[in-house]
Amino acid sequence: MSFKPQIKIPATYMRGGTSKGVFFKLDDLPQAAQEPGEIRDQILLRVIGSPDPYAKQTDGMGGATSSTSKTVILSKSSKPDHDVDYLFGQVAIDKPFIDWSGNCGNLTAAVGAFAISNGLVSDERIPQNGIAVVRIWQANIGKTIVAHIPITNGEVQETGDFELDGVTFPAAEVVVEFLDPADANADMFPSGNLVDTLEVPDIGHFDVTMINAGIPTLFFRAQDLGFEGTELQEAINGDAELLARMETIRAHGALKMGLISTLEEAKVRQHTPKIAFVSGPQQYLASSGKAINEQDIDLCVRALSMGKLHHAMMGTAAVAIATAGAIPGTLVNQAAGGGNRTQITFGHPSGTLKVGAEAQLQGERWLAKKAIMSRSARVLMEGSVRIPDIV
């Protein structure tokens, strides 16, 4: 019996924020995978090592968590006044699907660096020393993101002293601006309300802020869901019954937001919406053992990604937190103490994060103008990935 040999695909393994992923230039993919569809998905699933019934992704590049089971495809931008088109795929670990419905805010921090290093940004836009402003078209959600990439001697500066909770080692700071992060074709609050009531059969009814900024997100009060608001991963991720209950709540929230038409669809749309819970500022020990002091934060936030409590905070969810925090009356704003806020610092399982946002009320509709946060990124490995030839 003969088998096809493995093929090599040029790729770069990068950390962006608190996530890792495999980055590809679009024209480096096999021809059949340069268009969306089943072949592209099959190739990327094999690269990451999914579906894996053992949930380890041992035979691929994935790290067996939602933060490390990611793929990125980049190309020169087809949009005016943009440098690079960015497409993100969230790869399921134990199921054979890739969710293309949303962005990854953490990996966004690595997009600009990759684009510069791989010739996707025009030379005249890259200073010899200073900050390169990379204009990114986020193709999943149709939004503009601006990344500020430090440059030294004409090359991306990756090392530095910027520390990001959830990442062990310091690196260079990358400032990321999410412009008009809400859905321009719909109300940022799908129901038109800052707070709604979500009815979940056999579980209960809950106050919820449903917002579409950065990524569709459902915010609940921690106490309403039976949480303290300071939980770490081990308190939640080992409880299958609890995770199933949270997924049921998320599915009903997705239905109420209009993201799906039947509850069954939630099974293949695990990336969005996110589900999060908030509480007022509290003292706790982060997962690293670092003491988080109540007076250093405005509120506590915990969020689930792909069915598990996230070890830190998803970048796109941080955009949602920043935006909701800037709007008086949302559950996020209430937890932070209310009032007008353009910047908040929240506590998450790995530490703290400061985020900023600008939002305006026009008539009866809230509009998000911008959300800003700092991240870091660096190349971990570059060269080629190998997979069995499946084309």
Automatic annotation (TrEMBL):
Q: Which InterPro entries match?
A: PrpF, PrpF-like
Which GO molecular function entries does the Swiss-Prot or TrEMBL record give? isomerase activity
Q: Please provide the record's keywords in A-Z order.
A: Isomerase
Q: Does the keyword Translocase apply?
A: no
A Pfam family cross-referenced in the UniProt record is PrpF
**UniProt-listed GO biological process terms:** propionate catabolic process, 2-methylcitrate cycle
Q: Which family does it belong to?
A: Belongs to the PrpF family.
Instruction: List the protein's name.
Output: Putative methylaconitate Delta-isomerase PrpF
What is the organism of origin for this protein? Pseudoalteromonas luteoviolacea
